[in-house]
């Protein structure tokens, strides 16, 4: 029993020593209402797909075939929830990237509307 406790304590210390921030292999950044920028650290060849879901299937749009580029400008409207799938050489690996959606509080949205709507000063 003593060995189990000391092993668990050693594992906890080892995990605590690991860096807390994990690097993302690729990120999407909204540039404007119609475009996102995909940045990736790796320059290994990938095929870039735009998809309505996180699965690569026949309904997906291929944006770039076997590219070493690290930055892409993708035509994804802000109103669409899309996934970008990076498919490695020979389809052996896939990385799925999507924009993070941060919902606004309804109260904050309503307050903003009330403060910026016509006639707000008269209220």
Element string (H = helix, E = strand): HEEEEEEEH
Instruction: Give me the count of strands.
Output: 7
Strand content: 25-35%
Summed up, the helix count is 2
Percentage of residues assigned to helices: 10-25%
- Terminal Cα separation, in Å? 71 Å
Identify low-pLDDT runs. Answer: 1-6, 13-18, 109-115
Structural class: alpha+beta
- Largest sheet properties: 4 strands, antiparallel
Indicate the mean pLDDT: 77
Shape: globular
Order of strands across the main sheet? 4-3-6-7
Rounded Rg: 22 Å
Oligomer designation: single chain
What's the topology here?
Elements: H1 2-17, E1 26-32, E2 35-40, E3 46-51, E4 61-67, E5 71-74, E6 83-88, E7 94-98, H2 106-116
Antiparallel strand pairs: 1-2, 2-5, 3-4, 3-6, 6-7
């Amino acid at each position: 029993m003593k060995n189990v406790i000391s092993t668990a304590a050693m594992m906890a210390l080892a995990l605590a020593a690991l860096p807390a921030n994990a690097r993302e292999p690729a990120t999407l950044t909204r540039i404007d209402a119609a475009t996102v920028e995909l940045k990736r650290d790796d320059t290994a060849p990938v095929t870039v797909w735009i998809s309505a879901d996180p699965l690569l299937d026949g309904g997906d749009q291929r944006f770039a075939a076997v590219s070493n580029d690290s930055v892409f400008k993708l035509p994804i409207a802000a109103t669409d929830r899309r996934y970008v799938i990076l498919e490695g050489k020979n389809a052996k690996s896939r990385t799925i990237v999507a924009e993070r959606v941060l919902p606004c509080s309804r109260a904050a949205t309503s307050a903003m509307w009330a403060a910026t709507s016509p006639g707000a000063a008269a209220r």
